[in-house]
Design a protein that fits this description.
mainly alpha, two-stranded antiparallel sheet, 2 strands
């Protein structure tokens, strides 16, 4: 038997249709996103998840942080701008991989937010967030890593990504920022 079925009847414990529960890593992905999406039943949690998801759309919050850093920290303006470019590049890379992989978003939970596309792997929000955490964290922006982590979690609470989507996106973002670290610091790429 490839799948286990929920025993809550045809409409499940929350009035939604039950879907077969996959086994293995995909099953773990399903259970984690279900548990985190359930946290969104609290209106305060749902509001925070929506706000963070909106802020992370197309890497907007990270572009704003990078440009603000370039304005405020004039001696390191070039590093801030290059970090912003790395973050935007990471987001573009995540979006490109998503178009190749074409994994559907979770269908077993009701999303809290709308999405630009219907594919989920990797999370472009997580890709740009992790790249920003590494790039701007290296410049001393201590608030960026926890904010980046919150954006990543918001995608799970919003029910629009599986944990493996977020983990892969974060790994791609870290890799992009690490590969560009010398360039960001003003050295050759």
């Amino acid at each position: 038997m490839d799948e286990l079925h929920d025993s809550h009847g045809p409409h499940g414990p929350h009035g939604r249709y039950d879907f077969p529960r996959p086994l293995g890593l995909h099953g773990v992905d399903h259970r984690i996103v279900s548990a985190l999406r359930a946290c969104g039943a609290d209106p305060r949690v749902a509001g925070a998840a929506r706000t963070l998801s909106l802020a992370g759309e197309h890497g907007a919050v990270w572009l704003a942080v990078g440009l603000a850093g370039a304005v405020v920290d004039r001696p390191r303006r070039g590093a801030w701008l290059r970090g912003t470019a790395l973050t935007a590049g990471a987001h573009a890379a995540g979006s490109a991989v998503k178009r190749v992989v074409r994994r559907p978003r979770p269908a077993h939970v009701e999303p809290l937010v709308g999405t630009v596309g219907r594919h989920s792997f990797p999370s472009a929000h997580a890709t740009s967030a992790a790249a920003a955490a590494v790039a701007f964290g290296a410049l001393g922006a201590r608030a960026v890593p926890p904010l980046a982590a919150a954006v990543c979690v918001s995608r799970l609470v919003a029910g629009v990504h599986y944990p493996s989507d977020v983990a892969a996106g974060a790994a791609l973002g870290v890799l992009t920022a690490r590969l560009g670290a010398r360039w960001m610091a003003g050295g050759p790429a």
